[in-house]
Queue: 2 jobs
Job 1
Amino acid sequence: MRNLFLKKFLKSDSNEPFTVNAKFKHPDKAEEINIKDFNLYIEDSHILKNINLTIPANKITCIIGPSGCGKSTLLKSINRLTDSIENVRKTGSILLGNDDLQNCTESELVELRRKIGLVPQRPTPLPMSIMNNVAYGCKIHGVKNVRQLRRTVRHYLKVVGLWDEVKDRLRSPAVRLSIGQQQRLCLARSLAVEPEYILADEATSALDPVSSRIVEDLFVKLKEQYSIVMVTHTLRQALRIADYVVFIYMGEIIEVGEAKEVFNNPKHELTKNYLQGTIS
Amino acid sequence: MKSSVIFEKIAKAFMYLSIAIVFVMVASIIWTIFKRGFGCITWEMVSSLPGGGFYIGKEGGFLNATVGSLYIVLSSTLLGLIISVPIVFYLNVFLSQKSKRAYWTRLAFDVLYGIPSIVYGAFAFTIMIYMGLRTSLLGGIIVITLLIIPILVRSMDEVARNFPRDLLEASFSLGATRLETIGVVLRQIAPGIATATLLSIGRAIGDAAGVMFTAGFSDSIPTTLSQPAATLPLSIFFQLSAPQAEVQNRAYAAALVLTIIVLIISLAGRFITNRFSKHKLN
């Protein structure tokens, strides 16, 4: 029975326009993320110090800095994945549009997290089939219509360029895909709930050069509709795709600016040193 | 030859020896049971209840024990899973790894794991006397459930602790609540649950001490929960302790049935585990 459905699904006209899920509310205008006086402590150590940052919409913002400086923590604070850390204490606020991410209720958080997709460092396909991986997010947000789900899956697999590679084995386990394919699947999974922001935590560091190039190109293509924040260790990558660069050192923002500006004329001594590779 | 190479050879020899010992033991147990069991088993023994003189070598069978064992094992495994799966989720999804409560819970289960089943049986017996209850199927089920909960919890917990945290974050970041994330966790640890279930079935079906005081023994198949029930291990025990050689031999027929049930359950379990683990990450 399932296979019959699948066959019908594959034959269906691929040119039919994709309709946005009515379940998901979209703001009229792309929203910015505003981080105001944000501090984060774990036990007694002060991990993020007085972060004030505006992340512009429809741009790629790269967060760079040496290891352990708080880049990932800042990224995870944005969709509150830091909640699960022991003894964590936070002050200040992070706003998405007008919604406060730090001081919202559990049910508001669920909706806000939907608006902020995450692409993890190592691809983490959910233990399900390829199709259900992409459909999972929609299902938990209450999309039950099977046809709508299938359309969504097909659309977003096409967006990440995975459709032609997997269309014959949508029911097979996602873990059988190659690492590069898995990462694109994770991206498709995040996109399927129609977020506004995409957070990428060193999304290409586990990939081979070809796959990471594909993901990079995808990000550049996606920035027309999404705002992308990525943490990266590869300065060249930041140079290639970033519009804005945020340089963090020891939990403090040292320099923020347009990518060209920061890379060509770093204002701060530390940034200069980091870019030249004297600190890492 | 270099000493490190020699050392590795010796170590390897020990490994082979250990594996050989295990194989020989398994094979000889199965061989003995099958040889002696098939020697005396008849369809009558498998399919009928004990007659008047069954325990002195006359007509009848041990269907009462087979059915009693299956009743107790299946219902206590089901009950045990219903109780222990939420415990494992609570320990791993809701509590953090370093939480004190999780530490004490795990310690408590480790202690319970080590308690011999006769203690469970005697403990339940004391309570039953106190409450004026008689041996019953329900008593047996409850004691076996208590006996296998620590096994279920600890072996599932071991799998769930190695659960990749990234997967939780992936689910959370899509906007799933912790309750919805349990679906993901369940799929990932399904092979672990299957293994834990098999382990506990093995322990439950072979346990004689726990049910001796609580389920008692009976020559008929229980029709309600309050009637006493026979079990295969106890049936084997009673037959083996009879003075007549032919009755002792018949114990092997019961042992054969018990072994075949265990074999079927483990092979089926393996099959199911393999099917479940095809989606598993790592």
Job 2
Amino acid sequence: MTSSTRNRLFALGALLVAGAGLAYVAFGNIGQNLVFYWTPGEMLAQGSKAYGPTIRLGGVVQPGSLRWDAAHTHLSFRVADTDQPGAPSVPVLSSETPPQMFRERIGVVVEGTFDRSQTFTSSRLMVNHSNEYRPPKPGDGPDKWKTTVSAPTAEAR
Amino acid sequence: MEMRMRRRLEIAAVLGTLGIFAYAAWTGLVWAPPDREMGDVQRIMYAHVPMVQMMLLSGTINFVCCVVYLFRASWKTDALAEASAETALVFGAIGTTLGAIWGRPTWGVYWAWDPRLTTVAILLVAYAGYMALRRFVDDPERRAVWSAVTGIIIAVDVPIIYFSVKWWKSLHQVQSTPRTVDPQMVYALRWNITAFFLVLIVFLVARYRIALAARLRETTVPEPAPGAQQVVA
């Protein structure tokens, strides 16, 4: 076998392996085993299996559910599948400083544990940004965003 | 004469690239408006998005070179494969670092093992391994064949990275389109993509020449100088 025939076989072999790998990832069921977060509906459907282990819960902050405690050390809100009323939701308790953009209706992913009390205790709070980028609204000064993002904190004071 | 002409053209091309880069940076940093929610930190987009795109483009170039090399061996395609793997690593590493810096104030974390970030990390580690492999193999022909096979396998990750945000739930948002982005920002982003593309071309050409020269030096048997004594190495 000449070396050029051997190289072609190598190429075909590598392409075959690469194609099979890609097809497996694209059409295989690994999406069900590789889950970055559960939505509240998915987590509640697990029942008591969700109690205990560290899990990530993702959804939107339900409008009207955001509360700071008196000492301003704990934040509680409900994470819902969507911002529609009646969507499955879970109460979350966090003792972290939320990212600047945190507010009602924004997408969040919280990492923590769920237990029998039906409360999710978060040890890590992440905000999920959409793919939209817009300039400040007409009439807003260039620094308007600073006040809008810190609004939840200001309200609670 | 021809050599001098070529040199002048090259200098003009590099200066033109720098000029476009400067204009693009101005559009992104000064001219375009800040984002309504994120403010000025969103301007990282104008470097983060183009750099990661150039990583994916370099990976694609590397894949094509690897396949072409195995079907028609040539030091030129091997040299371009080496160059593009390195640009993929450089642009990817810087682009990902910029993404992490952007992630801290917006997401709240520098890093999360979400599908997009994980698949990019895999690509960067894989190209670092590809470069290590190239340095471990001394025989140029064997090195070219082994690294071509490796490059083809690594390239599987390129489409996976692109589709990761569509296939799986992730912290990273899905691709923006001109409909989801303010027109002024789209304009600035397009100039920055052009600028980073030109920088990529400059890097690729320079690195390709170095790689090709090294390959030719490796594969050419040096002729003994006339009258030179035989030296035992």
